[in-house]
Amino acid sequence: MLKLGMVTYLWGKEWDLDTVIKNCAATGFAGVELRSTHKHGVEVELSPAQRAEVKQKFDDSPVEFVGPGSACEYHDPDHGIVQRNIELTNEFVKLSADIGGTGVKVRPNRLVKGEDPQVTIARIGEALRECGKFAADHGQEIRVEVHGRGTKDPAVIRKIMDAADHPQVVVCWNANPGETVNGSIKMNFDLLKHKLGGTLHIHDLFDQQYPYQELFSLLKQQDYDGYCLSESPATSDPLKVMRYYKALFEQMTA
C-alpha cells in the first residue's frame, strides 16, 4: 500500500516540531521528511540528548520520521565545496539514524555551465558513492531527488545512478513537469524504477498536466511500499487542505 506523508518545505516551513507531528497526526499523514533550515529545528547540531528527545516525540506519535531533507549537492568543480557537502551529508546520515529515520534526501542541483556534462555527472556520482558507503554503515539510504537545471532530466539521473553504482544510493522521484512523453511518464519512469528509494515527492494531485494516476499505477506495479510525500504550495488553511489532499490521495490509490 502506498503511504502518504509530507515534506516540510512549504506547508510546514513555519511549524515547530510539535506542530508538525500534531498536524500530520490530525490529518492522517503517516510520515514526514523534515526539510533542513526550517522552524522544526531538527538539525545536525542537535546534541545526543536532544536527538533522543526528538526520537521519543515521534515514537509517542502515529507519525513516522522518514528522514531529513538536506540541500546537499555535489556538482561544483571546486573539490573543497564537494567535500564539505559530503561531510555534511554524513552528518545528516548520523542525525537520521539517531532519530529513527531511514534515509537522507540530497540533490544534484545543476549541470555546470561550460563543462562536459559527463564530467559533472561523474563528479556527482563519485560523491554519491562515497556518501552511500557511509550511509550503509548506518542503515540509511541516500535519496537523490530528481532535481536541478539539467539534472532533473530522468535520463541524466539514470547516468548519475550508474556512476554512483551503490545500493544505498537511490532515487527520490519528484513528479516534475516535462517528464511526460505523449502524455505518459512510463518511458522516463522505466529508466529509474529499479532505483526507487523509500520516498518520492508529489505535488498538486489535481494538476491535469501531470499523470498522477499513471504514476500511482506504475508504483503499484513495482510493489512500491515507500512514502509519497506531498510538497505542495503553502496555503492559509493547511489542515483543511491536508484533509482534502489525503481524501484525494486515497481515492486515486485505491
From TrEMBL:
Keyword annotations: Isomerase
Domain Xylose isomerase-like TIM barrel, first and last residues per copy: 22-237
Keyword Hydrolase assigned: no
Gene Ontology molecular function: any one: isomerase activity
InterPro entries: IolE/XylAMocC-like, Xyl_isomerase-like_sf, Xyl_isomerase-like_TIM-brl
Official protein name in the record: Xylose isomerase-like TIM barrel
